[in-house]
Design brief:
The chain is α/β, with parallel strands linked by helices. It has 13 helices and 13 strands. The protein has a 7-stranded mixed sheet with strand order 1-2-9-6-5-3-4, sandwiched between helices. The chain has a two-stranded antiparallel ribbon with strand order 7-8. A hairpin with a 6-residue loop joins strand 1 (2-6) and strand 2. Helix 12 crosses helix 13 (348-356). Bound molecules: nicotinamide-adenine-dinucleotide and zinc ion.
Length: 359
């Protein structure tokens, strides 16, 4: 079991990574006797829900489970509003703790519920996808979608504890593992050359769900995520911005395919290929390193971009991306493996070429 810490003064919290992390988390929080643990669970996760409830009861908690269908459509006011009523009826008070058991969809919605119910109660993340374990569960960005865009309604509300239980990943389909791997590779490329080299050797173990590789990789990623969050909690100083590497073109691919073709991390793998191509083209990164990175990314089993998606159309989505400032898109690019540079000077014609490099 590995233990990490997000240092945020009186909002600091621990992250547990390993097999049995959820059981350990149940014992971790103080003054719990008779307190209510309200568990918002992805209804697909029967076995994991059962295990969490058993562990919480053994540690003295009262429990209440709300099972929901956790597709992206769940991140909607209309879907989560009834849960405030359910919390009230279950008797949830200021001492209750909301547990988010599921992927990023459940984490974002549960964190938002916890942040707004009674003006804020504590919440614990128990992420069950690799993507949620290495990324969305840590950092306190919570919220729901709006018809005009994703994640537009929300608030920062840090969890009090995050338990990344590797046993809970056992039922995860391979494509969801690949999605998490995409975000892992991102951490290697932007922060950590040694980790990137390790991933080039161990990625198959991760896709295969091998526990030792997972524990090493998840904790390594979270160390970096925790550091970025501690330095820039509200994503204002630019420290967290480098985490958007690969996301400009990646988001455009997701939006242009109506979020149906790619899992998030798969689109990011393609987005990182485009960003690496741009890094070389803009003179930040040497060509050999760029070619090696792109070859590795291209070797991963990501679905192809549908034939009807044209680079010019992707450009319109890139320009709509919220990181465009004063008409200029800000690209996070690579100077080397583990080193980034922010580039505001990428011409539209070059963005189109970069998109073409992955079509
Ligand atoms: N808050 C943040 O900082 C942040 C960061 C990145 C992404 N996000 C959000 O996260 C969401 C995506 O998260 P996700 O990729 O985890 O998606 P998800 O929660 O939709 O889960 C993906 C799929 O896997 C299933 N699943 C979850 N755990 C499983 C398990 N252990 N076994 C079998 N199936 C399982 C789910 O039912 C779902 O079908 C998006 O809404 C995105 O906006 C938030
Ligand atoms: Zn991402």
């Amino acid at each position: 079991m590995k233990r990490l810490r997000v240092g945020l003064g009186d909002r600091s919290y621990a992250i547990l990574v390993g097999q049995g992390a959820a059981r350990l988390a149940s014992r971790e929080l103080g003054d719990r006797r008779g307190n209510l643990a309200y568990i918002l669970a992805d209804r697909r996760l029967g076995r994991q829900t059962h295990a969490l409830v058993r562990a919480l009861r053994a540690a003295g908690w009262k429990t209440h489970v709300a099972r929901v269908t956790a597709s992206e459509a769940f991140k909607d006011f209309k879907r989560i509003y009834p849960l405030y009523g359910d919390l009230l009826k279950a008797g949830a008070d200021r001492h209750s703790v909301l547990f988010a058991l599921g992927g990023g969809v459940i984490g974002d919605a549960a964190g938002f519920l916890a942040g707004t119910y009674l003006r804020g109660i504590r919440w614990v993340g128990v992420p069950t996808t690799l993507l949620a374990q290495v990324d969305s569960s840590v950092g306190g960005k919570t919220g729901v979608n709006h018809a005009l865009g994703k994640n537009l309604i929300g608030a920062f509300h840090q969890p009090t504890l995050v338990a990344c239980d590797l046993d809970f990943l056992k039922t995860l389909p391979e494509r969801e593992r690949l999605s998490g791997l995409g975000e892992m590779i991102k951490y290697g490329l932007i922060y950590d050359r040694a980790f990137y080299a390790w991933l080039e050797r161990h990625w198959e173990g991760i896709l295969g769900g091998e526990s030792r590789s997972l524990e090493e990789a998840v904790s390594r990623c979270l160390k970096w995520k925790a550091r970025a969050v501690a330095a820039d909690e509200r994503d204002r100083s630019g420290v967290r911005e480098v985490l958007n590497f690969g996301h400009t073109v990646g988001h455009a691919l997701e939006a242009a395919t109506a979020y149906r073709t790619f899992r998030h991390g798969e689109a990011i793998i393609l987005g990182m290929q485009a960003a690496t191509w741009l890094s070389v083209e803009r003179g930040h990164l040497d060509g050999r390193t760029g070619a090696r990175i792109r070859a590795f990314l291209a070797s991963l089993p990501v679905p192809g971009v549908p034939a009807g998606i044209k680079a010019q159309r992707l450009l319109t989505y890139v320009r709509k991306d919220k990181k465009a400032q004063a008409g200029k898109v800000r690209f996070v690019l690579l100077r080397d493996v583990g080193k980034t540079v922010l580039d505001r000077g990428v011409a539209d014609s070059l963005i189109v070429e970069a998109c073409n490099s992955v079509l």
